Every structure is written in C-alpha cells, then in structure tokens.
C-alpha cells in the first residue's frame, strides 16, 4: 500500500490549503464571534468546485472521489471547522443521499445547484428525544392521496436554515411492518413548504459560524414523488450515508488536530520565557511531538478507510475506527495546544481557543464515540 498522494491530489490539497489560509483565516474569527454564516466564503468554495468534488461530471460534479473530499475537509479544518462542517454536511449528508438513492428526476432537479454550492441541503435524522437511538424515530408521514403529510420534529440539523438552503431530507415512520417494527422512509422536503418551520439557530459551544437548527413539521404536505429511494428503506439508506460520513468527519478531525500542531509550532517559536523561546524546552517539544504523532496516525486511519470504500471493500469497521481515533486525538491536541499557549490559549483572538471549542462535538456528531465502539465490537463478532 502506498499512501503518498498523486500529483493531482497534492495539487488539490495545496489549492484548498491556500484558500483556507488566504480567504478563510482573515474573516472567520469575526464570523465566529458574531455567530454569522460566512456566505461569501461558501460562494467562493462553490466556484472552486468543492461541493461537487466526489460527484460525476454528468450531474455537475468535478468527477473526483470521496477521498478528494476528505483531503479538502482536512485542509479547511486546519484553519476552521465551521467552514469545514458546512462542506462536509452539504456533500455527505445533503447531496449524497439524493445522488445515491434519488430518481433521475430528483437528481436533475436538485443536484446541479447542490453540487455548485448555489444551494445547501440538510439531513433530517436526529430528533429531540432520539439521538444515538435513531431507530426510535417519532416523526411520521402518512400518504394522503398523492401527498405525504409529515408531522414531527428534528434536532441539531446542519445547513437547514441558511438563505441558500434548498431542502431537507427527512426520515419518518411511514407504516408498521408485519413483525410490528417501524417502517422508516426518507422524504425530500423543500425549503419554504407550508408546515415546515425552522427554529432560530442554537446557541452553541463551538461551530458558531455554521448553521444548525431544530425543525418542526406540522401537517407538512409534499408530493408523493418526494419519497427518496425505496419506501421502508430509509433507515438502511442513512446508515450507509453515515458510514461514508464517518470517514469525512475523521478527515475533518485530523485537520483540526493538525491545525493545533501548526499553531503550537508557530507560537512555540515566537513566545519567549526565561530568556529563550518556549520551543527550546523539552516539555514543549515533547507535547508537540506527541500531537504530530497523533495527527499522523489518525490520518493513516482515514486514508485506509477511504481506500477500502473506493475499492468496493467492506469499510464499516475501518470508518468507525478512523472516526473514533481522529475525534479523540482532536480533543487531545486541542487541549494540549491551549496549554502550550497558556493564558493566550483562553483568548478567542487565538485560533487554538476556537479549536478547543470546536473539538468536542467531533466525539458526538455523526455517531458518538460510544456508537463507534459498538460498531467495531459488533463487526468483530461480539
């Protein structure tokens, strides 16, 4: 196995790295403090083709693959995670379900705008009372003639309330199976549909420049043709989407962890204490060396999971391992980077304060660390 990047992959990584440093870095702190969505940054990401990276050109994509998306996410997250999660959710959770399971008509209607970044889509799975227990979905959809009537609510939904949000795909109970279990299906709900209400944005610890809302559906009616994929296969469809998304979140976590190394190196060379730079002290050197080792091994984990996925091999366990390990070391590195910065690490003017606030959600979102351990154990036969 050779994990060295091709020339094309290296060029992509460098272009996104330059964009993150030159376009994102100068403006993101203000967005973060004001809790505003960086529309201009997102627009430029769309022009770069980042939202279409893993999709075929026939649908308006860039003809790349999922690994290309992961490389972009890592480089963005080295500077800021709010922008990175906007891209990750828009692609992995927003456009990918339509690409994987949509009809030709649904793809033609929605993908061009989603893949160009002109529009965003949300992923309506989590509910206020059902987090990790996604099978406990309470939202219901009843077929009334040629329309689905949806009632229920969703929580913590990314990209669901921006000015450019086009739709949310929603999991809902659409019936009961012969064995008494719930029949779960997925339905496309366009933004602005009567009965579909987007609550004000959450007050969050981190990711404050990303868009997150609770959604309510009150006799919300959409055409029967808005069913996404096969009826009754909604839960299975989203499990597949989440398996892929864990690799992307692992890449984002590696980016944050590497960003902590970047900032700590810079600060250790500049900060003077007791007559010399703090980087000359072995205690600081060892901290940064450990941080680099953690970021490197986590990167190899998501590279491996992505390679297996693209080769058509089973990758569920490897994706869970990558997500579990990368999110853990992201939190570790953020804590150490803050410690290296001392009092300045507690000040929001320094990126490591933002990294610290952003890191914890990586152990929760798109499957908690406990869920990843459960997946790994089950795949081992336990």
From TrEMBL:
Signal peptide start and end residues: none
Cofactor field: FAD
Gene3D superfamilies in UniProt: Acyl-CoA dehydrogenase/oxidase, N-terminal domain, Butyryl-CoA Dehydrogenase, subunit A, domain 2, Butyryl-CoA Dehydrogenase, subunit A, domain 3
GO molecular function, one term: flavin adenine dinucleotide binding
PROSITE patterns the UniProt entry points to: ACYL_COA_DH_2
Bilayer-crossing regions: none
InterPro entries: Acyl-CoA_DH_CS (IPR006089), Acyl-CoA_Oxase/DH_mid-dom (IPR006091), Acyl-CoA_Oxase/DH_mid-dom_sf (IPR046373), AcylCo_DH-like_C (IPR036250), AcylCo_DH/oxidase_C (IPR009075), AcylCoA_DH/ox_N (IPR013786), AcylCoA_DH/ox_N_sf (IPR037069), AcylCoA_DH/oxidase_NM_dom_sf (IPR009100)
Acyl-CoA dehydrogenase/oxidase C-terminal domain ranges (all copies): 232-380
UniProt keyword terms in alphabetical order: FAD, Flavoprotein, Oxidoreductase
Domain Acyl-CoA dehydrogenase/oxidase N-terminal: 6-118
Segments forming domain Acyl-CoA oxidase/dehydrogenase middle: 123-220
Keyword check for Translocase: no
Record has Transmembrane helix as a keyword: no
Top-level taxon of origin: Bacteria
Family: Belongs to the acyl-CoA dehydrogenase family.
Protein name: Acyl-CoA dehydrogenase
Species for this entry: Micromonospora krabiensis
């Amino acid at each position: 196995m050779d994990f060295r990047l091709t020339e094309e992959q290296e060029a992509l990584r460098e272009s996104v790295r330059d964009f993150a440093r030159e376009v994102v870095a100068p403006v993101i702190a203000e967005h973060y403090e004001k809790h505003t969505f960086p529309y201009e940054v997102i627009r430029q990401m769309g022009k770069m083709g980042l939202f279409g990276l893993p999709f075929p050109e026939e649908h308006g994509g860039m003809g790349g693959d999922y690994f290309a998306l992961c490389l972009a996410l890592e480089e963005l997250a080295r500077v800021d995670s709010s922008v990175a999660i906007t891209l990750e959710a828009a692609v992995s959770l927003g456009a990918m379900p339509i690409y994987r399971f949509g009809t030709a008509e649904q793809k033609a209607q929605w993908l061009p705008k989603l893949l160009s970044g002109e529009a965003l889509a949300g992923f309506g799975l989590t509910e206020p009372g059902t987090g990790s227990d996604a099978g406990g979905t309470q939202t219901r959809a009843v077929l009334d003639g040629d329309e689905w009537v949806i009632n229920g609510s969703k929580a913590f939904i990314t990209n669901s309330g921006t000015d450019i949000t086009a739709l949310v795909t929603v999991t809902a109970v659409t019936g009961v199976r012969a064995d008494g279990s719930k029949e779960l299906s997925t339905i496309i709900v366009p933004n602005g549909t009567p009965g579909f209400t987007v609550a004000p944005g959450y007050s969050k610890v981190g990711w404050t420049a990303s868009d997150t809302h609770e959604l309510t559906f009150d006799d919300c009616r959409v055409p029967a043709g808005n069913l996404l994929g096969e009826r009754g296969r909604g839960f299975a469809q989203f499990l597949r989407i989440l398996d892929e998304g864990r690799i992307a979140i692992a890449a984002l976590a590696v980016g944050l962890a590497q960003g902590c190394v970047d900032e700590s190196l810079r600060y250790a060379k500049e900060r003077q204490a007791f007559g010399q730079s703090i980087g000359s002290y072995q205690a600081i050197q060892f901290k940064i060396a450990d941080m680099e080792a953690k970021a490197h091994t986590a990167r190899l984990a998501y590279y491996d999971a992505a390679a297996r996925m693209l080769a058509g091999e089973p990758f569920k366990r490897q994706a869970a391992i990558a997500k579990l390990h990368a999110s853990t070391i992201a939190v570790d590195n953020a804590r150490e980077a803050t410690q290296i910065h001392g009092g300045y690490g507690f000040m929001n003017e320094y990126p490591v304060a933002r990294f610290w606030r952003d890191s914890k959600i990586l152990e929760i979102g798109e499957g908690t660390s406990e869920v990843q351990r459960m997946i790994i154990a089950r795949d081992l036969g336990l």
